[in-house]
């Protein structure tokens, strides 16, 4: 295919794609044999250029660096003349000998997309990790109190990381403290339920809760363990 026919086809492709994608897009076709006025066709108005404009510094630098072996450049960030954020992509069109003769540069003004992202982030913003208003917990929307109880138990045991039946006395007290902090004992029947999970009596659990409030140094001895 001769160069003129190739250019005509590229121009038609550029016009069709920009018409389909919309106003935020632009496709510029550069003739690499005349970098001082390389822009031979432009579809769209993102960069407000006209045919006869020179190649960009990015394109010249890329060609100087790689020469005939210049690879295509997939989406990269750029900036318009007035500071608008752009997203660009560069595709080289080569002749039968593999030499780049045209460059098809696709530019997208992403101002509206970034504004939309900012608006969405504002809608879903939560307190950052470490903030006293956000302890990183997940919320369970249960239909029954039993589901809430099980969610609390599951969450505490997962965070604790050890089987409740394999704990020593101090670890049991620490686990009971975790249940207390999560409000587990606000539900009727949770004392018996947690005691069963830990393999202890409810009276031992009561003594552990008392030890939590007194501190480990003053806590009562475990009535189920030999002294």
General description of the model:
- This protein has 227 residues and is an alpha+beta fold.
- It has two domains: 113 residues, PAS domain (Beta-Lactamase); 69 residues.
- Pfam families: HTH_22, PAS_6.
- This is Transcriptional regulator.
Question: Topology of this structure?
Answer:
Elements: H1 3-21, E1 25-31, E2 39-43, H2 57-66, E3 73-79, E4 85-94, E5 100-109, H3 111-124, H4 145-160, H5 169-181, H6 190-198, H7 202-214
Antiparallel strand pairs: 1-2, 1-5, 3-4, 4-5
Helix pairs in contact: 5-7, 6-7
Question: TL;DR of this structure?
Answer:
The protein has 227 residues and is of the alpha+beta class. The protein contains 7 helices and 5 strands; from the N terminus they run H-E-E-H-E-E-E-H-H-H-H-H. The protein has 2 domains: 113 residues, 2-Layer Sandwich (Beta-Lactamase); 69 residues.
Shape: rod-shaped
Number of strand elements: 5
What do we call the CATH homologous superfamily of the largest domain? PAS domain
Number of domains: 2
Strand order of the largest sheet: 2-1-5-4-3
Q: Largest sheet at a glance?
A: 5 strands, antiparallel
Percent in strands: 15-25%
Radius of gyration: 34 Å
> In terms of structural class, how would the helical and strand content be classed?
alpha+beta
CATH architect. name of the largest domain = 2-Layer Sandwich
The stretches of 5 or more residues where confidence is low (pLDDT under 50) are 217-227
CATH topology of the largest domain: Beta-Lactamase
Distance between the termini: 95 Å
